[in-house]
Amino acid sequence: MSFEGMHEDGWKFLVELTHQNERSWFESQKARYQAHLKKPAEALMAQLCDSLQAITKKEMSGKIFRIYRDVRFSKDKTPYNTHLRMGLTAASAPAPNPAFFFSLEPDKLVLGAGVFDFDKPSLDAFRQAVVSAKGEKFDGIIKGLKSSGYHMYEPVLKKIPKGYPADHPRAHWLRHKSITSWWEDRVPKEIFTPDAAEFCMKHFRKLAPLNAWLTDLQP
Fold this sequence. Notes:
The chain has 6 helices and 6 strands. It has helices at residues 8-17, 23-28, 30-56, 120-130, 134-147, 196-215; strands at residues 60-64, 84-90, 99-104, 109-115, 151-152, 179-185. It has a 6-stranded antiparallel beta sheet, with helices on one face.
């Protein structure tokens, strides 16, 4: 389908879902969800894949995450996610694959990139790279993103992993088990126009060096 922008009523659907997160209401609004939220998102995703392919030089693949929550192991039994999220990754790369991500939420838009959860081989590769000469480039990329207003999570480990020098100038990165950086702000009016993909790409271009560095760690 041609893309004219995300539908404003699709975003309003998410706002309303935060207050009426129950199956009966969702079923009565399902056609609205499909037409005004999911379908425009699919068209946006196709445009973003094409644009990202031009800068990464890799065939890109996109995925829109399910609106249905997995509540099996959660105390929160509300059945639906109140956001629309998509991930965009190199089609042929193995997991965990560095991704660009998009999240339209009731109160904000989030655009980011990185790896949400390293597996053991990838985590080992990241740690070895960050304390090597490659880590200097990584450190520069992150400093540049932070100075431009992009966010990062705090490290999850309290101590430096065994086998790595605690006095290394980049040792603090060894306490991370994932690496993501993102921009977020109130939902911009551009997202509801044909310029939505280019608005996203302005951020994805800034985040592209981070994904490229993480991609180079893969076997």
